[in-house]
Design a protein that fits this description.
nine-stranded antiparallel β-sheet, 8 helices
Amino acid sequence: MGRVQHSGVALRLTIGDFSRMTHLSVKALRHYHEIGLLAPVGIDASSGYRQYDVEQVPVAQVIKRLRDLGMGLDDIAQVLRAPDVAARNRAIVEHLQRMESQLEQTRATVMSLRRLLEMPDAPSPSKIEFRSIPATASVAIRERVAVSDLGGWWVQAFEELHSVVARRRLEIAGPDGALFSSAWFEDEIGDVVAFTPVGELPEPGRGQRVQPHLVPAAEAAVLLHEGSLTDLDRSFAALGGYVLERAIAVEGPIREYYLVTAFDTPDEARHRTEVAWPIFQTSTRP
């Protein structure tokens, strides 16, 4: 099909011509029409063929570029309907930042796999110790978190906790930590408590996300994980295997204590995380 005349005035493009000019498939153009993202300027009454205007080509090209960047159709609609240039650019920049975050996560996963292939041995059991952990006053954020959302949630939670501690001038009494419910591991979603130990429990804040929290006392087998959190599963495997073989595991959340994190240094090789597995302690030494 070729170009078609409309009302003897404007030159219209068939969907085939428009597809070739924009490198968007006919199937995609039909879908964009159905969802209201890019509607044709007209539909031929007799044939039902969609008709497009040359002026729509730049819009179609923007859609294609944004799709090539992995932007979802809802986000693309937000860009196209932005009230001004600033709002449009802000939506694009936010997407690019999400892409950069995903790229960093992919890079970290690749590095973790490479380390696993090059150094398949699990952390040494000699690094595992039994420990009595006292009850700890803290300020905390408790929420139901999906495994896939943990990275972003973790950063935001501790940034908020640190901000509250500084604003209320609370005394920090130990490293940041987190409690992970069994459901979080088993169902890929569950309760997570991010906490910052403080000298004494503060007064609760009405309607606030950050609340006082008494982290309960526990007996635990503890393993120090050195390096990126991406490799933390190796330490979990080593610690869990040790507990099953040489200790009595009990119900309770698994704990992580963040001794050195990205808040302290960007060098992941220097990061230090303690993993604490709840046990019924029968001796002082593993």
